[in-house]
Design brief:
Blueprint: H1 13-20, E1 26-31, H2 45-60, E2 67-69, H3 92-109, E3 113-118, H4 124-137, E4 142-147, H5 155-158, H6 161-166, H7 172-181, E5 192-193, H8 221-224, E6 231-232, H9 238-260
Parallel strand pairs: 1-2, 1-3, 3-4
Antiparallel strand pairs: 5-6
Helix pairs in contact: 2-9, 3-4, 7-9
Length: 273
């Protein structure tokens, strides 16, 4: 079976059957959102990043690795952005049920691993819950919920502390990455907005609490930003975007190599559950 295409939906049904029978057969499901990203970035930002980074990673993996990309899930759970036009949000229950139903069908086909490759920060927790429920329902299949920007050590040298910690949405990192990947999709505005940039608008958490992190609270974008941006985009550039792209691709390439070269999970994993 040719692996010149890493796309699951390019297979015929006999090819799917053969793919699923491979030792360590793995599917990767890109997740994003259709939601506002300020006045300068497109609604498609999150799923665009997930698809582009994943495609670059899969292209660099050895052809012998049995790993393929599922059709992308471009609509996600985005209630925090619904006060801004353009945002389309699915309910948490619908996203959860979709993961359970699709995942169960893939497990029944015989696939051994399912990676949820998510680029929308607002649904990290939801996909972790869905993954746990799917694993309980289909213990024979490993389920790995991932977030594009998590654990990428190289970001520490590329982004200032303030943007790494508080540039939560459409800030320096996302604007630069889009400038590097698709500058034609980036508008001319370079906003600086959000909780730390507009004291008149800010809702400052009590000491020890935060927007995200150890003790977060459930914020809505209109609480924090007039523009839909939380961060500072003024220093964004295509050069930084290319550096971010390289860092993301290198990080996920290493992780996928590690996964695909392993025998995890053991074939008899489900027997003790």
């Amino acid at each position: 079976m040719s692996r010149s295409s890493r796309r699951f939906d390019h297979f015929s049904w006999p090819q799917v059957q053969e793919a699923a029978s491979q030792d360590g057969s793995t599917l990767v499901w890109p997740f994003g959102a259709c939601e506002q990203h300020g006045p300068h970035l497109p609604l498609v930002t999150d799923i665009f990043f997930a698809e582009r980074v994943l495609a670059a990673v899969l292209e660099r993996l050895p052809a012998s690795f049995p790993v393929w990309m599922l059709p992308s899930q471009a609509l996600g759970f985005s209630p925090e952005h619904q006060s801004f036009p353009g945002t389309l949000s699915l309910s948490a229950s619908l996203v959860n049920q979709m993961v359970l139903e699709v995942g169960a069908q893939l497990a029944a086909m015989g696939f051994r691993r399912l990676v949820l490759f998510n680029a929308h920060g607002g649904q990290i927790g939801l996909l972790q819950v869905a993954a746990r429920q799917l694993r309980a329902k289909c213990p024979e299949m490993a389920v790995l919920p991932c977030f594009l920007w998590s654990g990428v050590d190289a970001l520490q040298a590329l982004l200032p502390d303030g943007e790494r910690e508080r540039g939560l949405h459409a800030g320096l990192a996302e604007t630069s990455l889009m400038l590097g990947l698709a500058p034609e999709l980036v508008g001319s505005d370079r906003p600086q907005d959000g909780e730390h940039h507009d004291p008149a608008l800010s809702i400052t958490p009590p000491a020890g609490w935060s927007l995200e992190g150890n003790a977060p609270y459930a914020w809505l974008m209109e609480d924090l930003s007039k523009s839909g941006v939380i961060g500072d985009t003024r220093e964004s550039s295509a050069e930084l975007g290319k550096q971010l792209e390289n860092a993301l691709v290198a990080h996920w390439l290493n992780l996928f190599k590690s996964l695909m070269e392993s025998q995890w999970p053991p074939a008899n994993q489900s027997q003790g559950l």
